[in-house]
Write a structure and sequence with these properties.
Blueprint (H helix, E strand, L loop, with lengths): L6 H12 L3 E3 L9 H9 L3 E6 L2 E6 L1 H9 L12 H18 L3 H5 L8 H12 L7 E3 H7 L5 H13 L4 E3 L9 H6 L1 E3 L2 E3 L1 E3 L3
Antiparallel strand pairs: 1-3, 2-3, 4-8, 5-8, 6-7
Length: 200
Amino acid sequence: MRAAPSPAQALCLWALVAKGGEALLAQLKPKPSTGDRQALVASKLTLESKAGRAIRVELTEAGWAWAAANTRAIFNPRAYAQPVLVDLLARLGAYLDAHGMTLAAIIRPAPSSPGMEHRVRAAYLSETGGSLGRRARLAHIRNRLADVPRPALDAALLDLAAGGRAILMPIDDLSTITPSDHEAALQIGGFSRHLLWFDA
């Protein structure tokens, strides 16, 4: 079982998150000790590589997962930024929980596609037989857009809903919700949304 990062190591991981997931060692403030760096690499939370004469440090997928699950991590008590970071990350964690989002989707979102809204609408129309004003299960929409990474599709759906161009709705009859519906649902305001609706 992987040992939990120490407070100093946790601060290093969050410094990398703040840099977008990777940075030259010289750019990390406070600079991690050699022992902490080696421990993070050994735990497979970070990777290190040469960048000319410099050392590049980056988060692994396990590192991103750790950060997403530890937004209330305890930092090095000597770090002057601790109170601000603790408050900021607590708010960030609450936002992620409420919206069912991943940390990586915010810090390093998938490149947006100009045609994503068109693709979502086309998938919806294929699902509804070409009709607007009908419900389409998000599980079916995701199946039709299986080549689109989930963070990118989630971002497109949330953007459509936030802009009032589409509606994300729950399934009212709980007995009809399938495991696929649960898996495909978006969490908004603490509630699951299983359906997509276009009016126009």
